[in-house]
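Budget justification aside, the reviewers requested a transparent look at the raw inputs and outputs of the sequence design task funded under Objective 1. We therefore reproduce one unedited record. The lines immediately below are the structure tokens for a 472-residue chain.
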């Protein structure tokens, strides 16, 4: 590992710890009881039942001393708070988008954008829709279409930008079935559903040209834009000496607007925004914002939250932070690779995505293999992960490939140290060593939308895993 300062000294967490929170230590018996009570859905666990929580990197960041200080000097004016002014000018400076409004989180921004732009029968292409993005597109009667490159579905391909859009597939949609029925093109940076994989500047440029040639606006789902920019700096020719801010300006210059969950690269626990260059659209978004979220200078948040977001957005662009962030994920990947655990390579920006099909080849989608694996990691060491596969994406999205099937170990920002990650690697490796004994689950309750949040499961009766001979 190379440190940014070029000294060759070992890399360390680029922060020291000022406040600590005790980690719960549930016993094996307590974990078993918790699983039963939770209906084998880890979303139903309480935090005191969890040792290491890798459910999500969303809203789970540790804030810095400067962010906490920003909360303390919050100006809680209903309208015209100075925190809004700072929030607005920070995002304008980063993105160049002139019009923006806060929302309480990312999906609220998606609701405003899609309900304003989409009508029934429309198509929305995206490299890969995130679960809430897909749900909001569908909620407005439009069809989400995933157009990531083939390499995104090849878990071993070393492609440096597996989040890229498949340009011929996008053309085919825009000029074929979707002709005149695509209100916006969206690109998710990084591609969360596809493993936190980055999109190259070159690819974004081509997507922007394709969309604009047809007078279709390009919007970015920019939750993890700083992580994406760091990968561009590392991997795209000619980018190594450019600052993250500079790469960001190049990215955003190609787009007409964005939605963001600040719970990711905003380094806060709640918040988001929607931004656009289109003043007329901005007025329509504002009407919807006032109806659903609040006045445009707070958008469903406490004003102090806007101050913490402004500071967090700037901190997320610092090179020592980003290097630590990306290297931390690679470090966990390295430990798992050394133990022969199958996962998506190369590791993305915010977590390790375990390859469920290769991890548990004796289980199928009907056995809810991904959920079964997530349950087993909790059982083994109190580690909470999340299924990112058939249950989370429950159909409805147009795909040219068999859908991906992952268990995601998402790493919260600035929360866990290398020792915590070594513990996680050991837990995963132990489950891998006894993988043949892992049994499937049956779903006992299937909710109609976003099923992963509230579904319930039970162990699959007396089902015995097939012997190696039967599998052949
Ligand atoms: C988290 C996320 C969202 C939704 O944001 P919330 O703040 O959870 O509502 C949208 N898109 C992507 C890519 C995300 O990771």
């Amino acid at each position: 590992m190379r440190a940014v300062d070029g000294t060759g000294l070992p890399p360390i967490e680029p922060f020291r710890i000022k406040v600590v929170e005790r980690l719960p230590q549930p016993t094996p018996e307590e974990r078993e009881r918790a699983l039963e009570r939770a209906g084998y859905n880890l979303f139903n666990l309480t935090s005191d039942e969890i040792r290491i929580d890798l459910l999500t990197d969303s809203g789970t960041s540790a804030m810095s001393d400067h962010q906490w200080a920003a909360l303390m000097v919050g100006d809680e004016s209903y309208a015209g708070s100075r925190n809004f002014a700072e929030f607005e000018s920070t995002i304008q400076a980063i993105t160049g988008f002139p019009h923006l409004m806060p929302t309480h989180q990312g999906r609220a921004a998606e609701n405003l954008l899609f309900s304003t732009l989409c009508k029934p029968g429309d198509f929305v292409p995206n490299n890969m829709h995130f679960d809430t993005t897909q749900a909001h597109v569908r909620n407005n009667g439009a069809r989400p279409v995933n157009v990531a490159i083939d390499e995104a579905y090849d878990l071993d391909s070393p492609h440096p930008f597996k989040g890229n859009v498949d340009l011929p597939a996008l053309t085919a949609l825009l000029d074929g079935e979707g002709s005149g029925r695509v209100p916006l093109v969206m690109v998710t940076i990084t591609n969360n559903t596809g493993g936190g994989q980055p999109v190259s500047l070159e690819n974004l440029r081509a997507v922007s040209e394709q969309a604009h040639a047809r007078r279709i606006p390009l919007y970015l789902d920019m939750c993890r834009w700083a992580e994406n920019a760091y990968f561009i700096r590392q991997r795209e020719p000619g980018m190594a000496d450019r600052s993250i801010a500079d790469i960001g300006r190049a990215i955003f210059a190609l787009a007409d607007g964005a939605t963001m969950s600040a719970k990711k690269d905003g380094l806060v626990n709640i918040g988001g925004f929607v931004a656009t260059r289109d003043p007329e659209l901005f007025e329509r978004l504002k009407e919807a914002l006032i109806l659903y979220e609040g006045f445009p200078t707070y958008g469903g948040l406490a004003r102090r939250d806007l101050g913490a977001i402004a500071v967090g957005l700037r901190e997320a662009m610092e090179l020592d932070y980003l290097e630590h962030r990306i290297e931390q994920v690679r470090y966990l990947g390295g430990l798992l690779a050394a133990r022969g655990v199958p996962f998506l390579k190369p590791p993305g920006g915010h977590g390790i995505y375990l390859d469920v099909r290769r991890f548990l080849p004796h289980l199928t989608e009907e056995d809810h293999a991904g959920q079964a694996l997530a349950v087993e990691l909790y059982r083994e060491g109190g580690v909470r992960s999340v299924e990112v596969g058939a249950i989370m994406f429950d159909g409805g999205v147009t795909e040219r490939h068999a859908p991906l099937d992952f268990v995601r170990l998402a790493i919260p920002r600035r929360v866990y140290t290398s020792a915590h990650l070594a513990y996680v690697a050991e837990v995963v490796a132990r489950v891998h060593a006894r993988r043949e004994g892992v049994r499937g689950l049956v779903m006992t309750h299937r909710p109609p939308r976003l099923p992963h949040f509230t579904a319930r499961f039970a162990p699959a009766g007396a089902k015995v895993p097939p012997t190696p001979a039967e599998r052949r």
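The pocket of pyridoxal-5'-phosphate is lined by residues 58, 105-107, 130, 132-133, 188, 192, 221, 223, 261, 263-264, 272 (CB under 6 Å). Residues 175 and 214 are 9 Å apart (CA to CA). Computational costs for records of this kind are itemized in the attached budget.
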